Amino acid sequence: MNRFALLSLYRSLTRHKLYAALNIGGLAIGIAVFIVLGLYVRFETSYDRWIPDHENLYMVQSDFNLPGSPFDGVSYQTPWALLDMLKETDPELVGTNIMPAYGSVIRDGAGTAENIAPADPGFLDFFRLELAAGSRDALKSPRNAVLTEAAAERYFPSGDPIGQTITLSHDEGPTNYTVGAVVRDLPANTQFDFSILIPIVQSTSPTIIAEERNLGALTALTYVRLETAADVQGFLEKMPAFIRQHGDGIGENPDEMLSYVVEPIADFHLGTADSLRQTVATLGIVGLVTLLIALTNYINLATARAGLRAREVAMRKVLGADRSKVMRQFMGEAILTVAIASLGGLILAELGLPFVNATGGLSLDIPYALVVPALVVLAIVAGALAGFYPAMVVSRFQPAAVLASSRSPGGGRGGARVREALVVFQFGLSIAFMIGTAVMMAQTSYIRNADLGFEREGLLVLSTFNDPGLDDAAKGTLMARFREIPQVTSVTAATMAVGGSGSNTGENMELPGVPGPGPSVRKIDIGDKFFETYGIRTVAGRVFSSEFGRDDATETEDEGNFNIVINRNAVPVMGFDSPEDAIGKVVGGDRPRTIVGVVDNVRYTSARAEIGPTFYVYKSELPDFAIATLRFTGDPRPVKEAVRAAWQESAGALPLGMETTDERLETFYEDDERTARLFAIGAGLAVLIGMVGLWGLASFNTARRVKEIGIRKSLGASATDIVKLLVGQFMRPVLIANLIAWPLAYFAMRTWLAGFDDRITLSPLFFIGASLVAIAIAVLTVLGQSLRASRTAPAWALRHD
Amino acid sequence: MIKLENIERRYASDEVETTALVDVNLEVAEGEFLAIMGPSGCGKSTLLNTLGTIDRPTSGHYWFGDQDLAAMGEQALAKFRAAQLGFVFQSFNLIDELTIEENIALGLAYRKDVSGNKAERVAAAMDTVSIAHRARHFPHQLSGGQQQRAAIARAIVGQPRLILADEPTGNLDTANGEQVMDILTALNAGGATIVMVTHSPSHADMAKRRIDMLDGRIVASAMRAI
Ligand SMILES: Nc1ncnc2c1ncn2[C@@H]1O[C@H](COP(=O)(O)OP(=O)(O)OP(=O)(O)O)[C@@H](O)[C@H]1O
Ligand SMILES: [Mg+2]
């Protein structure tokens, strides 16, 4: 572009301020959405790719083949002894492991929850984690701890932490450790969540060692280094024999029930949940589509306006400019416009990022070294693409036809059709976005208020009640103290609580007259008043009561001969026709158990998780690993105060965790709501860009048709006729857009909803509603201009050129 | 049929005020063929537009029959134009995206009271101006003379009482101009009232009456000597 072309662009941008604002503003918003969502996708897909050599590091995962069981499928946990066992088979193998993090740091008698993870001594070297201080061998001595820089800063704000003592409560209650090393903080995009590492304690007891070597004991994450595809192959080929050799603990033919798979560590994060992968893909698509809509807009407005400049171009051609010169000028303008919009988009993204971070629970920032070159490429590629069509249209104008015509050409009938197609495309996607937003909002709000099978209001869960540091006597005292709190109406303890408990057990339930071990059924141990406290409905029979001696399994758990209660989903699984049919039936083979009641299905955790078949076992004494749940009336704050007081008296320094139902379930809502919110923002902006585009298009179209309006008025068209004409012109593409939007949204939303066990139905109202909104938006967008155009004096319009 | 009383039309722009029509009084009888002449900028088009109600006088009365059109609302005027008027412009003003046939049909589109077969009336109008063979063409595919004949067909398809023509031959060569004048004369003979602006004395002579304008005023009026 030469100086004159730049001058002409500058003049045309400043002369047509509205056009410039629409064109650049719309594009900038599109680019900003693209940048922000692109950053999100990049963040989610970058997990653990910062680990040196991550391509050769694999996580070993247990793949259970237990059809019908809640434990069927891949678990990424393995026994922590697996690493040693693998090394016994292959001494050359390089690997490491780490256990899930939990626990607390104790200072001045008070506990603070901290992510303490026991890990293999080679953990730091395996992942080549950088040390800030101390020795890489720190984890080799059993009473050493390794802190992250952040943890070191928390507990030793002044001075060198190395060699200092820190009291940690993990498996064995409060224990003193010496800080042996400080590891540099890991970036946010990692699967590891520890803040303190401690060595794994090796037991000397043969029974414990045997338990730890049971392949069904899922306690740790195991990692191995496999350098080549052949290594991976070789490792996997050895596994069936390995499982046959070590798998007695999980049953006969262990290699049919279990296999090991390896997953590159960088793939782990996205593999943890289908919903996450879906979210990342969805938001990535939203970003891309928004950019596309914005570019479509640009093309549309540029072509439309090019039509208004047809006379200029025609005159230039008359004066001797050739086609390629005209093309170059238009493409150059497009590239420069996209470049300006990119800058605007970058600024908008920077301004919008804190807001998006807050909404999405993220901590993204813009890596300029990456984004700026990417935007330069975008400006050139997208600018050239977006400029090509209008440039072609304009350069193709026949000067004679343009100069002779009564109104500015818009690329002829073909041009009008292309523009209509672009409007269809844009609105189709916008309508699909609106449907998607509505469905996601409806589903997330439905989940929040859905019937969970129990009364969700007025429950308080003590998640730290199963702290190993709390002995049975203290637990008993606590339960008694809780009952005395005036607002508390009922107290119970069980191995399950709303929000989950961390424990997950199941049993195969042999059925009478059916060969084989029977279906695998989830087992929940409950104490007194569990069903009453939760308010779970009884469907048939009765729930446990201390009046019936056989209800209590405390003594008889191992031999059988006690009563159980099952949930509704267990009824068909156990082969009963109806809940009533199940009552009085004996199941469990040589450990016979009598079904005395059927209760409603209860959703303790996520709406995405299936509610499996479940049976409840009553223990009049507190079940092991039980979590306490309190039912209270009124304001939860005084209840929490009273619980805290009781806890401090009986549990002392142990950390206290207590949450209401909504607080417990928040984590399950959060992810989906975050996705819904980010989606809504992206979709809202896409719709906004679409509106801006339609508005711009309508304004150019109206400008182009001023003379036609004059002609029609002279023929007796009323203002209403003109408005109908101008608005109607946009109705056709908007209506056709529904044809794209509906199936697109239907399939996308059906897939998304399929991820939920508890979900809303995909009502036609979402579709009709979104379409009506789109039509209303389109009408309102073009109505203003149409009204103004309809009021122009015809004599003036006829002079217009 | 038409009576203009003390019509004034002023254009107010930022700095200057132009008076395009000054104290114009004019009567046009049913069945007349009136030619308006005068130098450029004297207000001929303004007067014609005022007659056609696509421009409003600043003051004065415009009686059409017993109605004062100067005091009527936009909606009513649109209806009046659709039912009573036909326009022919110097620059044809056909709509590019519509075929000749569709352009002509537009002359009926805004009339709610048209009875009978519209397509027949369009065909009849096309026959009147001998443009039927070009029905499916677009305006830019036609010569100026053909376009102007199509524009006349559009003006007459609704069988208006009053035809307003603003330099209908201004963009045409002599032969085409004669053809257009013949059509207008024939229409007038058929009963239509015609008011025509022209710069051509010979075309003005084909009208029954002629007025001359200067600086927004009617300065002379003459009947054709028969
Ligand atoms: N929209 C307008 N704004 C300001 N002045 C106008 C406007 N329209 C017409 N005029 C002025 O009114 C006067 C009469 O214009 P008009 O178009 O009626 O002239 P005309 O007699 O038809 O001329 P011509 O023979 O050149 O067509 C002129 O001085 C013109 O400049
Ligand atoms: Mg004129």
Automatic annotation (TrEMBL), chain A:
The chain crosses the membrane at residues 20-41, 280-301, 334-356, 368-389, 421-442, 678-698, 734-753, 765-783. The keyword Transmembrane applies. It is found in: Cell membrane. Keywords: Cell membrane, Membrane, Transmembrane, Transmembrane helix. It holds the Pfam family MacB_PCD. Residues 285-399, 682-794 form the ABC3 transporter permease C-terminal domain. It is a multi-pass membrane protein. Residues 21-238 form the MacB-like periplasmic core domain. This is ABC transporter permease.
TrEMBL record, chain B:
GO terms for molecular function: ATP binding. SUPFAM superfamilies: P-loop containing nucleoside triphosphate hydrolases (SSF52540). The keyword Endoplasmic reticulum does not apply. InterPro entries: AAA+_ATPase, ABC_transporter-like_ATP-bd, ABC_transporter-like_CS, ABC_transpr_LolD-like, MacB-like_ATP-bd, P-loop_NTPase. This is ABC transporter ATP-binding protein. Keywords: ATP-binding, Nucleotide-binding, Transport. Transmembrane segments: none annotated. SMART domains: AAA. Residues 2-226 form the ABC transporter domain.
